[in-house]
Amino acid sequence: MLTGAGWKLLGAAVLTLVVARVFALIELYVLGAAGAAAVLVSLLVRICHPSRLRIARRVSAELVPVGQDLVVEFAVANVSRLRSPEVLLSDPVVGVGDDFIGWVFAAPLKRSQQALVSYTVSTSRRGELRLGPLTVDDQDQLGLARRRLVVPRKSRVIVHPRLEELNAGLLFQEDSVTGKLRPNWGAHADEFDGLRQYTMGDDPRHIHWASTARLDQLTVRQFRPPVEHNVGVLIDTRPPGDGVAAQDCTTQVAASLIRSILQSEVACQIVTTDGRGTAELVGVDQMANALEFCALLSGGSEQIVERHNADSTADSTILVSAVADLVSDPEARSRFAGLVGAQVVITCDVTSWARTSGRGVTEWNGNWIHLTASGQLNDAWKKMVTETSPATWVAA
Fold this sequence. Notes:
The chain is of the alpha/beta class. Helices cover 30% and strands 28% of the residues. It is built from ten helices and 20 strands. The radius of gyration is 33 Å and the shape is elongated. 35% of the residues are buried.
């Protein structure tokens, strides 16, 4: 097909031939014929001898945090015996923010020569980016004709919330008796459960010497059976927690918690109050599933699935919410935490979140943390587990 320049030259050539015919000027005949011939030759060259390029799209990462630029790179190789023309690569980017087309020019390549060209995508919002299909336009040397090829292969990139650093050691500690990791909050099944008489095979470390001296017989401490903990991170999606700004905050906190839990090799699950969620996650290699869930989370409803998910096996739950009532009303916070079975409640101030960036006041009280900005989670959690005693949320 002809380019804009090709159509203009062809129009000018036809007009010149018409003028030459009217005024019988041989010079204009030659000029018009030369212009028309140039357009025709360029078109035939593009049709009969198209450029032969091998093009592969590569992205800098399939998972990128909000705010980090995504680099889209094209490896272009000339597999023809002839020199390739300059080609224009146009790559649609759809999904987050304003859709646009990434334009890249690839310079002419010699036989078997390769080149790398790229463009950059700014990621200001979480969600899914879809790249492609790629359109390749190669033009002749005069820029009069081009041949268009569509490469149908697409790429998918997940833009996930920023992750805050949270020391995994603040979340869990190793039990001195069982040797298992246990959360630094709530009640645990392997805690002290009473005293009983010593029997053969009991661990001598469990002997309670004060009771032994008083009763004049060996007495040991008895513990509840140890369990493998499964931690649930619950995102409150009740309005206004169903808004984009609110979920930008809550998903950032939830994803940061999940990463620290997975780093501790503790089973976990991320769910919402209206029943959506991931499968059980174990190990850092499953972090991508949690990040994708947080990146794509949108909307919500007033519906509350008690104990947050019928398929959940979590025995410890951390609630993350941007609903203002849970901040201003301690009784409402306690009732709702008891309803969903949460041992820790983390609330986020949406109005100040983007402005303060790590500064501002952080509140904590018992097992409640209130965050006013990004970057406060680690310090606030540390204060909660070291400076306050655990509280128990009770449903009304």
